[in-house]
Design a protein that fits this description.
sigma factor activity; DNA-binding; mainly alpha; DNA binding; RNA polymerase sigma factor SigI; Rna Polymerase Sigma Factor, Chain: A; sigma factor
């Protein structure tokens, strides 16, 4: 029969979250890291399959790319980014697999061009067709990558009780207002304590923030949703959405 203290210990012991497990891995627990990777191989295969639009197993090169990407996600994950490990890992895996597919397409294109010419006219036509097919394929890949980014970004927005459509409707209409809001978001993300409060409380720490920016409290509150969205983009792994920010600042 178990003693009362041992029962109390068992009842008081909480199951670790996946994110807490990753924090332990960051402290140097390589055995735990290997165990986690092994445990989530089905997740990796499923994620890679969704990109490749076909069944993927451990024998496929794409699976290896996905596994390396999952390991990278474990090592780079930070709770300050405002999303779960699996959401972050999914984005990294899909991006790496898409990059791999794009690279393979380029290599195939090079091989096609290097094939000895049969007839000048026929060869020129083949090159044109190859150029067009690779270009179109790359456009499709980039479109898929943008779609995945927006989907991931939309999921993170829901954690702040925001929606993508709501953000589009309530974004500042004037260029100066957008630029000012982005500058506020920069300050918010560049100060670790403010960033921590943002992602923990899911709210802008207005009282602390207003002391560090040149705009008024009223302006911060009016553009609250846009500022939060820009802060999420700045701290996340969003290549295409970060280009949007650069575009606004260069207007």
């Amino acid at each position: 029969m178990k003693t009362v203290p041992s029962l109390l210990f068992k009842l008081g012991k909480k199951k670790q979250t996946l994110e807490q497990t990753v924090m332990k891995i960051h402290e140097g627990d390589t055995l735990l890291q290997n165990s986690l990777i092994e445990q989530y191989k089905p997740f990796v295969a499923k994620t890679v399959s969704s990109v490749c639009k076909r069944y993927i197993d451990e024998r496929d090169d794409e699976f290896s790319i996905g596994l390396i990407a999952f390991n990278e996600a474990i090592e780079k994950y930070s709770p300050d980014k405002g999303n779960s490990l699996l959401a972050f890992a999914e984005l990294i895996i899909k991006r790496k697999v898409i990059d791999y597919i794009r690279k393979e397409a380029r290599n195939a294109h090079t091989v096609n061009i290097d094939v000895p010419e049969q007839e000048e006219g026929e060869s020129s036509q083949s090159k044109i067709e190859a150029d067009l097919s690779v270009t179109e394929y790359q456009k499709l890949i980039q479109a898929e990558q943008r779609r995945e980014e927006i989907l991931h970004f939309t999921n993170v927005l829901t954690e702040f009780d925001l929606s993508f459509s709501e953000l589009m409707e309530q974004s500042p209409k004037h260029r100066d207002a957008r630029q000012n809001a982005i500058e506020v978001a920069k300050v918010l993300t560049e100060h670790p304590e403010l960033k921590k409060l943002l992602f923990q409380k899911k709210q802008i720490p207005v009282k602390q923030l207003e002391k560090m920016v040149s705009v008024s409290r009223k302006t911060i509150e009016r553009n609250r949703k846009y500022i939060i969205a820009m802060a999420i983009i700045m701290t996340g792994d969003y290549l295409y959405l970060q280009d949007y920010i650069k575009g606004v600042l260069n207007e």
